[in-house]
User: What shape does this take?
Amino acid sequence: MVTVFSRPKALTDKSLHFCPGCGHGIIHRLVAEVIDELKIREDTVGVCPVGCSVVSHQYFNVDMQQAAHGRAPAVATGIKRALPDRVVFTYQGDGDLASIGTAEIVHAATRGELITTFFVNNAVYGMTGGQMAPTSLLGQVTTTSPQGRRVETHGHPLRVAEMLATIDGAAYIARVSVHDASHVIKAKRAIKQAFTVQLEGKGFSLVEFLSTCPTNWGMSPVESTKWLAQNMIAYFPLGEIKNLLN
Assistant: This one.
């Protein structure tokens, strides 16, 4: 029998705790596969803050550091400056990065810190009860916007990738999705590009992943993938927004 598919060495054998249909498990695997393919597992340090990623240290088979809510870029900056030979990444959600951690990510990019951020955008606070996030779409119903998000009350959804792409210290910014197989393949390519930017010392890199949250969206996994494709991509267009490798 020929083995055609196996667990990446950069993932532990612990079962994931994520809800059925959640995209975090796919993203974890993609990051781990790229780490293995680049042969950087022994040199990689990940930082996971509060949110659905809070226990990612149990899943990534690399050195991991916990961070306070929103503060992963600051912690990663300290690690990278103290250990410049390491490959350092943060794994963050939208409630974390795009809200309490907005200043942290903006200034890490401004300084051109040689870290890589994987930003999971599921348009809602996932772990803490389904509240409206800075990335929640207009009209989207959440536990704190039961009538739907409204511009006059809540403002517009924040496009993080486009904002960071305007910063000179940012070398690679991309937005991908993991709602179907073809987009998963493209997402893996973006992860590899982001790590390569760090390895070549070009500057700050970030990959934003559009992902599903069936539990807090009140949908089945199948319904949630359709909702993402029909609603999120229109507001958060996919593709490389900035790439200094080209």
About this structure: Residues 29-243 form a domain with the Rossmann fold fold (CATH 3.40.50.970).
